[in-house]
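The instructor's notes for this session suggest beginning with a concrete chain rather than abstract definitions. Hand out the sequence below and ask the class to guess, before any prediction is shown, which regions might be ordered.
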Amino acid sequence: MQAMKPAFALDFRDDTIRLLHRSAGGWQLVGQVSPGDPDLTEAMGYLRATALGLSPRGIATKLILPNAQILYTEVSVAATEARKRRKEIAAALEGRTPYGVDELAFDSAGKGSDVQVAVVARETLAEAEAFAAEH
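After discussion, reveal the predicted structure:
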């Protein structure tokens, strides 16, 4: 079964939140707002209404976090089995962030002994998801 690709993306930047729509030509900007906007709720409501106009059956949205919130690193692993590789990666992440490994979400890519890893605090993910759900 193929995973559903969201038709929209909320791109969080330091100075703006952008709503993007997936089209045949790639991601198109629907609109953007400043996180400091005094009418943030109203502005996000307008973006949501616009998105519903583009997709009346609902809005599936991916969240794009700022790179400053993501640790990109490379780790060496010996295991070849996926579960064991995840355990080795988790062990290698210990102490690399101010968070405990159980407070991190990560994904990895690479088939050899050196794998690229993207790491983010679960707290950051929860905040982004709560913002998206609220608006």
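Then share the key points. The first helix runs from residue 40 to 54. The two ends are 30 Å apart (CA to CA).
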